[in-house]
From TrEMBL:
Keywords: Membrane, Signal, Transmembrane, Transmembrane helix. It comes from Quercus lobata. It comes from the Eukaryota. It is a single-pass membrane protein. This is Malectin-like domain-containing protein. GO terms for cellular component: membrane. InterPro entries: Malectin-like_Carb-bd_dom. Its main location: membrane. The lineage of its organism: Eukaryota, Viridiplantae, Streptophyta, Embryophyta, Tracheophyta.
């Protein structure tokens, strides 16, 4: 899927490394930005300096994309550490990955200076519920922030969709959710069966925030309204019940307290006494 995002050279951002091209036999079906790379054969640390146009105290989505592409003819995928400022971000391990696929890691960052350095939130995943994994992920231009919304539909979920526009609460909605993502959803066979989602965090000590974006996209009978509860690990409900209005989005944020643990189990139930 084309994004119409303009790409610029990194030559003004870093003065180390060597620009290389991936193996020609692997590049045919790749986007242009993935056909060239910068390798760092020298030095223990090589640094980019980013100076965003909006400057400090704004939110920035930073995406680091990596593809080995057998650029050196060695058929040996690297392992290396990625930092943002002084903070460890991610160990990138391309071992046993496809040499012709690129892998990306997102982080949300609020710089305290006019250049990138310091505290950040790592984006783990963003799912577009109601579409199967054979379909393309949605990103820019559908999403003005170029967040990547990957299709998610389990075998026991029933997909539902609408062609109607789904509205956010107001024009200055801070999430700026793509309408195309809100037009698909999933449900179960009956009100007594929850939607279950299991997740194993990268580590059990870090704190995680969860954002649930809901929209009622089925036209229910007069007097009917869908009402949900979100349960965590069969231990507690994250919020009071959530009522949904037709073709209007609703966002539920779980950040107080944040979530942690070795395994996280979300269950979305019909609220007691509702269908």
């Amino acid at each position: 899927m084309g994004t119409n995002i303009s790409n610029v050279s990194d030559k003004e951002l870093i003065d180390t490394g060597i620009v290389r091209a991936i193996s020609p036999d692997l590049s045919e079906n790749l986007p242009q930005f993935a056909k060239n790379l910068r390798s760092f054969p020298l030095g223990t640390r090589n640094c980019y300096t980013l100076r965003p146009e909006q400057r400090k105290n704004n939110n920035y989505l930073i995406r680091a994309t990596f593809l080995y592409g057998n650029y050196d003819g060695e058929n040996w995928q690297p392992v290396f550490d990625l930092h943002l400022g002084v903070n460890a971000w991610k160990t990138v391990n391309l071992t046993n990955t496809d040499a012709f696929r690129y892998y990306y890691y997102d982080i949300i960052h609020v710089p305290l200076t006019d250049y990138i350095d310091g505290r950040a939130l790592v984006k783990i995943w963003g799912d577009d519920v109601g579409r199967n994994d054979s379909e393309n992920a949605f990103r820019f231009t559908y999403d003005v922030y170029d967040r990547i919304w990957s299709p998610l539909l389990f075998d026991n979920w029933i997909p539902i969709a609408t062609n109607s526009t789904v509205y956010s609460p107001n024009n200055d909605n801070p999430y700026k959710l793509p309408d195309v993502v809100l037009r698909t959803a999933a449900k179960t066979q009956n009100a007594t069966t929850p939607l279950n989602l299991y997740w194993s965090p990268p580590d059990s000590l870090s704190k995680y925030y969860a954002y649930f974006h809901f929209a009622e996209i089925e036209k229910l009978k007069a007097g009917q309204q869908r009402e949900l509860t979100i349960n965590l690990n069969n231990e507690r409900n994250l919020t009071e019940s959530v009522k949904l209005d037709y073709l209007n989005s609703r966002t539920i944020v779980q950040n107080d307290p944040p979530i942690s643990g070795k395994r996280v189990h979300f269950s979305i139930y019909a609220a007691e006494g509702t269908n």
